[in-house]
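Hi R.,

Here's the chain you asked about this morning:
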Amino acid sequence: MRVIVAGGDGFCGWPTALHLSRRGYHVVLVDNLYRRKIDQELGVPSLTPILSIEERLKAWEELTGKVIPFYNMDLSTDYDEFVELIKREKPDAIVDFAKIRSAPYSMKTSKHKIETVRNNLGSAQVILAAIVDSGMDIHLVHLGTMGVYGYACPAGVIPEGYLDIFVKSPTDELLPWKILYPASPGSVYHLTKCQEALMFQFYNKCHKIRITDLHQGIVWGTNTAETTMDERLINRFDYDGDYGTVLNRFLVQAALDIDLTVYGTGGQKRAFIHVQDTARCIEIALQDPPKSPEEGVKIFNQVTEAYEVAELAELISRFTGASIAYLSNPRVEAAQNDLVVINQQFLDRGLKPITLEEGLMEEVLSVVKKYKERVVTSAIPPSTKWRKELPEPVKLTEKKAEIVDKDLHLTELKHNHETLISNKHAVC
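And the predicted structure, written out as C-alpha cells:
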C-alpha cells in the first residue's frame, strides 16, 4: 500500500511512518517542520535530542534499506504542489497528522488562536480538495481527538462518533435519526477538530471521499519498536506546560525530584493511549477503510484506558516516591467529570492495548533520567491561562485543593485526594 504521511516529523507522525515502512508500506513523508519552529519560539526543545529529518531518514535507510521520500511542504498553503505530489505518488491513502496539536498553545494569545485555525483548517481543506482534484479514490485517515466530545457524558457513555436519537415529527411520531455526537470543544485546538469533523461530513457526502476519523486520547510514552532501533531514530519528548502531556510531565517532575503538579482538584478524567498503539491503530484503520463512501465517515475512539488526573498523579507518586502539589487550574473546565468511552471497534479488529504498567513507566522514566540535564525547569509550570482574569498558579497543600477566583466569585473548593483514587477505569 502506498501512503502519504502528512506531519510525519511529529510526535505521532514519525513513529507511525517508521512502523508502516517497516511493515512493507511505501511511505512518503510530508512536513513543513513547523513543530521544530515552535520549539525555537518557546525556547524548549524536545527532551530527547532529535536529529534533522534528513538525518533521521538517512539513518532509517542505513538500518533497513527502506527509503522514505520527504517533501518540505506547507499543506495549509502549498495546494498546487500537493496536488502534483498526489498525482506523482498515486497513494492509496493519506494519513493526516499535519496539525498544531496543543490545546494550551492554541490558547496563548489571539495570534496563536488565529494561527491554529489557519493551519489546522487550511491543511484539512487543502488535503480534501487535492484528493478531489486528483480524481483518485484515496482513503483519508485523520488523527483527531477525544476533545471534540468535551469531557462530560450526558448520554451515559461517549459512542464512537455518532449518536442514535429520535426526532418528534409534526404528528408527534418519533422518527429515528443518527447525528454526530454533539461537539463540546474546550480550546481553539479542539474547536478546529470539531470544524474538521463537519468538513469530513461534507466532503464525504458531496465528493464521495472515503474518510476515517480517529478520535484519539492523550498519548503517553515516547518510543516504539522502530524508534528504539537506533539513537538517531529516537522520538521527540515534550514535557513543558504548553506541549507536555500530563503523564510525561509527571515523570519529568519525578525524575527531577519536583512535586507532581495537579491542576485544580485533579478530578478531571482523561482517556489515554500509548504511542505504540497510535501507530498500530493507524495501520488497522488503513487496512479496514470504508468499503464505499455511502458508509459515511467512519469514526473510531482511539483510546485504551482512562484515569482521573489526581489518580494518575497518585500512581506516579507510588511508583517514584514523588510528592503531589495542587495548583489553581489555568483552564476553564469542570472541577470533576466522569468519562465513559466506547472503543470497541479497535478491539474487534485485534488491538491488544498497551496499558499503564510499571514496566512501561520505568522505560519512559529511564529516557527522562538519561536526558534530564536538557530539562528547562522554568518551562514545566503552565504559562497559558484560558481567561486572563484567572489568578496566577499558586502552590497548594497536598490532599487539599483550594482555588480562589475573586472575579468569578467561586467559593473555597475542598478536595480529599484519597477519595479520587478508585479502581473504576472508564473505557468499556
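The longest helix spans residues 110-134.

Let me know if you need anything else.
M.
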